[in-house]
């Protein structure tokens, strides 16, 4: 039976017109699946469904998502992450468990609990600063919004320079993040940047590729970041995540969301906070 699948041009370019036709005809796509974003059931025979292709160095995994959660897109990941994805898909009873080289028919999985990563910090600049990332819900104008709070573990120098200065906030402001003096309103959307939420977990913050083409990871953790059901529901409702960033020592690791909000308010009042609303990956 034909499927209500969205196959983007970039996905089609990777899998080929013949395989795209087989997907749309229902020959190689499952009817029911678990959405790789919100992890709830979907039915490609009854509702619009996006094809999301995760590509590593040698293999590829094709997953499916509600079109209202994620658009059809190609996501670059490490081969190590992709192998973890294949193992997770196999354990979850995916229709196919065969690994295939990139450029051939991809592995299919209803739930791609595999690719991507965040919670642990990732290298930022040659000075070896790493980013601490905390997720939480932030109340703004009477509504809860999903938020990520980013704080490096050390001062961040401008690439190519040496010294004891901290250019973390100026570098982000140059990328389009807005200085915040209070959290009275949702910050503007920063187009080109996005947050990758897949298989119900947070995997990366993506930024525009300086060379053009697909976005690249600005931050990608060593293990997927578990988020609460409320955080995930808010992200899917708003189709965006608020990202706040502050210099080292401004926020700290706060055990509760109310304490995190207090720290954000203090950082903003002290001129040490920038923020932006980032769409979910590919939006």
UniProtKB/TrEMBL annotation:
The residue ranges flagged as biased composition, category Low complexity, are: 97-113
Query: Which intervals of the chain are annotated as region Disordered?
Result: 90-113
From the Swiss-Prot or TrEMBL record, give the protein name. Answer: Uncharacterized protein
User: What organism is this sequence from?
Assistant: Streptomyces pseudogriseolus (Streptomyces gancidicus)
């Amino acid at each position: 039976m034909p499927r209500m699948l969205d196959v983007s041009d970039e996905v089609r370019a990777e899998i080929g017109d013949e395989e795209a036709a087989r997907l749309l005809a229902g020959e190689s796509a499952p009817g029911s699946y678990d959405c790789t974003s919100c992890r709830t059931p979907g039915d490609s025979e009854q509702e619009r469904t996006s094809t999301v292709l995760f590509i590593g160095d040698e293999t590829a995994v094709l997953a499916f998502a509600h079109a209202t959660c994620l658009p059809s897109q190609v996501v670059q990941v490490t081969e190590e992450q992709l192998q973890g994805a294949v193992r997770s898909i196999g354990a979850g009873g995916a229709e196919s468990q065969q690994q295939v080289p990139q450029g051939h028919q991809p592995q299919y999985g209803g739930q791609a609990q595999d690719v991507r990563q965040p919670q642990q910090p990732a290298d930022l600049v040659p000075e070896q600063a790493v980013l601490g990332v905390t997720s939480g819900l932030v109340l703004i104008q009477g509504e809860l919004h999903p938020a990520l709070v980013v704080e490096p573990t050390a001062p961040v120098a401008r690439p190519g320079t040496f010294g004891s200065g901290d250019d973390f906030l100026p570098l982000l402001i140059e990328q389009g993040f807005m200085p915040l003096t209070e959290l009275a309103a949702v910050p503007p959307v920063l187009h080109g940047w996005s947050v990758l939420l897949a298989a119900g977990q947070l995997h990366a913050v993506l930024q525009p590729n300086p060379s053009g083409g697909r976005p690249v990871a600005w931050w990608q953790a060593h293990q997927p970041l578990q988020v609460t059901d409320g955080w995930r529901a808010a992200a899917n409702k708003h189709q965006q995540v608020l990202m706040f960033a502050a210099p080292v020592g401004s926020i700290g690791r706060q055990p509760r969301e109310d304490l995190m909000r207090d720290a954000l308010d203090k950082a903003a009042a002290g001129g040490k906070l920038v923020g932006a609303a980032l769409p979910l990956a590919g939006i």
